[in-house]
């Protein structure tokens, strides 16, 4: 069944309006979630910078700091931080 030109125009207009609404919704959600995303990334950046500073001391201190950082991340941070932040609820 062929559609007329006016039906095609109406359908195309409806699709662009729907895409615009989706884009606006994604933009609003990213605006609200942005601080949480930045906080999560910065938490790992702080650990990375600490290990980078220890790397200037030598290979053995770097290995020890990396192991301690991994242990703290797996045991302490994964249990304590979610329970004390807004994401734990």
TrEMBL record:
<dbReference type="InterPro" id="IPR002528">
    <property type="entry name" value="MATE_fam"/>
</dbReference>
<dbReference type="GO" id="GO:0016020">
    <property type="term" value="C:membrane"/>
</dbReference>
<dbReference type="GO" id="GO:0015297">
    <property type="term" value="F:antiporter activity"/>
</dbReference>
<protein>
    <recommendedName>
        <fullName>Protein DETOXIFICATION</fullName>
    </recommendedName>
</protein>
<comment type="similarity">
    <text>Belongs to the multi antimicrobial extrusion (MATE) (TC 2.A.66.1) family.</text>
</comment>
<dbReference type="Pfam" id="PF01554">
    <property type="entry name" value="MatE"/>
</dbReference>
<dbReference type="GO" id="GO:0042910">
    <property type="term" value="F:xenobiotic transmembrane transporter activity"/>
</dbReference>
